[in-house]
Amino acid sequence: MNLSEQLSQMRNNTLKRMPQHILKVFIESIESIKQNKVKEKVLQKRDVIPNIYLKNLDDNSLGLNELDFSDFLILNFYRGGWCPYCNMELREYERLKNKFTEIGVSIVAISAEIPELAAQTSIKNGISFPILTDVDAKLMKTIGIVFELDENSKREYGNFGLDLTKIHGNDNYELPVPAIYVVDKNMKIVFIHFEENYMTRLEPQDLLNTLKKITIKH
After folding, report:
1. pLDDT by residue (tens digit) across 135-183?
2. Are 26 and 133 in contact (CB under 8 A)?
3. At how many degrees (to 10) do helices 84-95 and 204-217 cross?
4. How far apart are CA 22 and CA 98, in angstroms?
5. 85-127 per-position pLDDT tens digit
6. 121-149: buried (b, 16+ CB within 10 Å) or exposed (e) per residue?
7. How far apart are alpha carbons 185 and 65 in whole angstroms?
8. Domain-by-domain residue ranges, the chain?
9. Which of 74, 118, 136, 144 could hold 42 in an S-S bridge, CB 3.0 to 4.6 Å?
10. DSSP per position, the chain
11. What count of other Cβ atoms lies within 10 Å of the Cβ of residue 161?
12. Do 177 and 202 contact (CB within 8 A), yes or no?
C-alpha cells in the first residue's frame, strides 16, 4: 500500500473507534484552521526562508544554512512522534530516501518536540535522515504554519496523555499544520504542500515525480 492507502485505513479505523464527542472536537479544530485561512498566510513559492537555528538530536544548535545537501532539500514539518499519521509519513520518506537522493534531493524532518523525544521518533521509525527540533517553533512561526490549540482540544489531548508543554519544553499549546516545503541552495521555496487535515498527507511518490521535473529544469 502507498502512504495514502495506509493513512486512509488508519483514518477509517480511528473514525470508527473514537467517541463522537472527541471526534467533534478534532474536526472543529481542523475547520478552524480552514476558516482562519492559514493556508493563505504562509510563506509562498519563491519566498526565501531566513536562517533560523534548530537543534539536532544531540541538542546542538544548527542553522538552516549549515544543512548539508546537494541541490534541493525537503523540509518535512510534522506534529510529533506521538502522531501515528506523522510516523507513517516519516517511514514512507525513509523508504524512498535513496530515490530522492538519486535526483539531488535531501530530506530533513522538523517538529517542535524536544531533541530527546525527536531522537525517540527517529529510532522507532528507523529514520536515517536528520530530524531536527524547532525550539519554540520559531521557524514554523516564520513560515506561518503554527496554530494554537483551543481549550477543548487542549483538554482532549490531555485526556490522551499528551502534555504539549513537556513535549515541546515550553508553555505554549501550539502545533504545526503538517507541511512540505522544498527549497534550493539559497533557501528559496520551489514547492509547497500544506495539509489542513492532519489525517491526510502528500503522497511521497507524487512529490518524487514532481521534483524529478524540477531537477531536470535545474
Report:
1. 999 999 999 999 998 898 899 888 889 999 999 999 999 999 999 999 9
2. no
3. 50
4. 39
5. 999 999 999 999 999 999 999 999 999 999 999 999 999 999 9
6. bbeebebebbbbbbbbbebbeebbbbbeb
7. 9
8. 3-217
9. 144
10. --HHHHHHHHHHHHHHHS-HHHHHHHHHHHHHHHHTTHHHHS--TT-B----EEE-TTS-EEEGGG---SSEEEEEE---TT-HHHHHHHHHHHHTHHHHHHTTEEEEEEESS-HHHHHHHHHHHT--S-EEE-GGGHHHHHHT-EEEPPHHHHHHHHHTT--HHHHHTSS--EEEPPEEEEE-TT-BEEEEEE-SSTT----HHHHHHHHHHHHHH-
11. 7
12. no
* 195 half-sphere exposure, CB direction, 13 A CA radius: 19
Residue count of the chain, please give it. 218
Residue 99 grid cell: 530515490
- Output the CA–CA distances (angstroms, integers) from residue 43 to 88, 131, 191, in the order listed: 26, 22, 11
Cα(165)–Cα(186) distance, integer angstroms: 34
